[in-house]
Design goal:
Number of helices: 1
Number of strands: 0
Radius of gyration: 8 Å
Strand content: under 5%
Distance between the termini: 25 Å
Shape: rod-shaped
């Protein structure tokens, strides 16, 4: 589950665009 959180944090900047 922790790995998923890391992926979300990486997608956060992508979702902002």
């Amino acid at each position: 589950m922790f790995e998923n959180q890391k992926s979300w944090k990486r997608l956060e900047p992508y979702l902002e665009v």
